[in-house]
Each structure stands twice: as structure tokens, then as C-alpha cells.
UniProtKB/TrEMBL annotation:
Binding site for ATP: 29-36
Family: Belongs to the Mrp/NBP35 ATP-binding proteins family.
Function in brief: Binds and transfers iron-sulfur (Fe-S) clusters to target apoproteins. Can hydrolyze ATP.
Any one biological process term the GO annotation gives: iron-sulfur cluster assembly
Name by which UniProt lists this protein: Iron-sulfur cluster carrier protein
SUPFAM superfamilies: P-loop containing nucleoside triphosphate hydrolases
Self-association state and partner proteins as the record states: Homodimer.
InterPro entries, A to Z: Mrp/NBP35_ATP-bd, NUBPL-like, P-loop_NTPase, YlxH/NBP35
Coiled-coil regions listed in the entry: none
Taxonomic placement: Bacteria, Bacillati, Bacillota, Clostridia, Halanaerobiales
GO molecular function: 4 iron, 4 sulfur cluster binding; ATP binding; ATP hydrolysis activity; ATP-dependent FeS chaperone activity; metal ion binding
Keyword tRNA processing found: no
Swiss-Prot/TrEMBL keywords: ATP-binding, Hydrolase, Iron, Iron-sulfur, Metal-binding, Nucleotide-binding
Domain of life according to the entry: Bacteria
Length: 268
């Protein structure tokens, strides 16, 4: 499959849209580390900082973006050729989850999945965006590899939890990105510690230093360490992401700080 789009003259050209500042692919070594939670909250943080943001849920088998961001609207036809992406909390989203019931399995093989991704890029009236985020499928299998190749202009953000078993697998994604000559924007360590609501003590239940070590190995940087919080999980389950539901929370401030770093990296 030919690479579909590329950055030219500082612009990433979609068929019906432009991305001004950056494409960001959010990757992880394995499922359940919080990749989709990070994608949504980072998109909302970028939006809070005045950026126009879109999300492509490229984890087509394992879609979860609509639930986490609280999206219930469906895409609409713009004309015979173009689809208008639904928007929630100021962020445009395309996900297979908007077209299929949440409990139905998508039993398509890779060429079909890539076809859907191509449609999300080609047939959607994105308009002018500053950032387009891709929530990749977890791991280093066929699908993440194919997608990374298609969007090789995207910077890769790797989400991991701190324990050795997780960071070792996540390092393989970093290694894959390097082999594809993709730019690794940084590492986000999620569920780094649990902070007691009552006494404020931090407990490093999954160990410490994994994200930092991985960043060093990949010659990249650890962008943040996010707390493990019941409210993050509850917010994701209920379509009320922490960045919207709890503007003052430590996690929200950390997502905004990461968004600022990514904007600063692009501006350089
Ligand atoms: N920092 C956190 N604190 C508490 N719960 C979290 C945190 N981050 C993620 N979760 C929860 O962990 C679960 C997995 O998160 P998420 O779906 O974002 O992971 P994922 O890496 O995208 O998984 P997959 O690749 O399998 O889709 C969800 O229930 C989510 O609410």
C-alpha cells in the first residue's frame, strides 16, 4: 500500500483538510496501559491551549475513544464524497465506534482495517486542524506497523506503565519507530503512583524509574508521570475525561504541561 499523505512545505495535507502543527501517534507495547485515556486527555489539553484538534481512533478492533471522550453523535454526510466528523468538547473524532455497537466485534482483517483508516483520512471533511492524534492499536504487530508506515510523518508518543514487564514491551515499540525513522516525541509513564486522597502519600505500586530508564534507552525523554486515580478510571468509563471533569486535578495539570511541551517542540 502506497503511503497516503505527507508533510509538504510544513503542511500535512489531507484530502479535505490540513494539519498545521503536528501529527501525533500514541503507541503502547501492550493493551490496558492507558493509551486511549492519554490520547483523549492530551487532545483536550491541546484544545484548552487554543489548538484545533482531531482524533483518529486507529485502534479499529479495540476502539474505545467514543466512550472515553463521551462521544454519542455520529458522522454526517457533507456531500456525496465527504463525511463531517462528529465533535465533542471541541475535538473532532473519527472512530469505528461511531458506526458499530460497542459490544459488537469487528472481524475484519488488516486490508479492511487499513481501508477504514484510509477513509478516515481521505473522505472526512477535517477542515483546518493544528493537531491530528492517532490512537494506535497496541503492540508491534501488523496493524501498528502498517499504520506507522502510512503516517510516517507522525511523531510517536509512547505510553507505558512503570513496571519492568511493561517498559520492556514498550521499548519494542520505540525500537520499531526508530527502524521506521519516525520521530519519538517522548514517553508518558501512566499509573506511576497512587496518591492517597486522605494523607496525600504517594505509593509506587508498580515500581519506580521504568519510564525514565526506557526514555534513556531510546535516547528520548520522559514527558510526565501520571497518577493512578479512581477518578481517571471513572471519568473514562463515563465519558467525562479528567481534563474536562477536574480542571484543577494534578493529572489535568500534567496533561496540559505535556501539551505545552509538544507545542514547544513543534515550534522549534
Ligand atoms: N491513570 C489512570 N488511573 C486510573 N485508571 C486509569 C488510568 N489510565 C487508564 N486507566 C484505566 O485503565 C483502563 C485502560 O485504559 P485505556 O483504555 O486508556 O488503555 P489502552 O492502553 O488504550 O488499552 P487498549 O490498547 O487495550 O485499548 C481503563 O479502564 C482506564 O479508565
Amino acid at each position: 500500500m502506497e503511503k497516503m499523505y505527507s508533510v509538504e512545505d510544513g503542511w500535512f495535507k489531507l484530502e479535505h483538510g490540513l494539519v498545521n502543527e503536528g501529527l501525533i501517534a500514541i503507541a503502547s507495547g501492550k493493551g490496558g496501559v492507558g493509551k486511549s485515556t492519554v490520547t483523549v486527555n492530551l487532545a483536550l489539553a491541546l484544545h484548552k491551549l487554543g489548538r484545533r484538534v482531531g482524533i483518529i481512533d486507529a485502534d479499529i478492533h479495540g476502539f474505545s475513544i467514543p466512550r472515553i471522550i463521551g462521544l454519542t453523535d455520529k458522522p454526517r454526510a457533507f456531500n456525496e464524497k465527504e463525511i463531517i466528523p462528529p465533535e465533542v468538547n471541541g475535538v473532532k473524532v473519527m472512530s469505528a465506534g461511531s458506526m458499530i455497537a460497542e459490544n459488537k466485534a469487528i472481524i475484519w482483517r488488516a486490508p479492511m482495517l487499513l481501508g477504514v483508516l484510509e477513509q478516515f483520512m481521505k473522505d472526512v471533511h477535517w477542515g483546518e486542524l493544528d493537531y491530528l492524534l492517532f490512537d494506535l492499536p497496541p503492540g508491534t504487530g501488523d496493524m501498528p506497523l502498517n499504520i506507522m508506515q502510512q503516517i510516517s510523518d507522525a511523531g510517536i508518543l509512547i505510553v507505558t506503565t512503570p513496571q519492568v514487564a511493561a517498559t520492556k514491551v514498550a521499548s519494542r515499540v520505540g525500537s520499531m519507530a526508530k527502524q521506521l525513522d519516525s520521530d519519538i516525541l517522548g514517553i508518558i509513564e501512566n499509573m506511576s503512583y497512587y496518591q492517597c486522597d486522605k494523607c496525600g502519600d504517594k505509593e509506587y505500586i508498580f515500581g519506580q524509574g521504568g519510564g525514565q530508564k526506557m526514555a534513556k534507552e531510546l535516547d528520548s525523554k520522559l514527558l510526565t508521570q501520571l497518577p493512578l486515580m479512581a477518578t481517571i478510571r471513572q471519568g473514562s468509563d463515563q465519558g467525562k475525561p479528567v481534563v474536562i471533569a477536574e480542571p484543577e486535578a494534578e493529572a489535568t495539570q500534567k496533561f496540559i504541561a505535556v501539551a505545552e511541551k509538544l507545542i514547544a517542540q513543534r515550534a522549534r
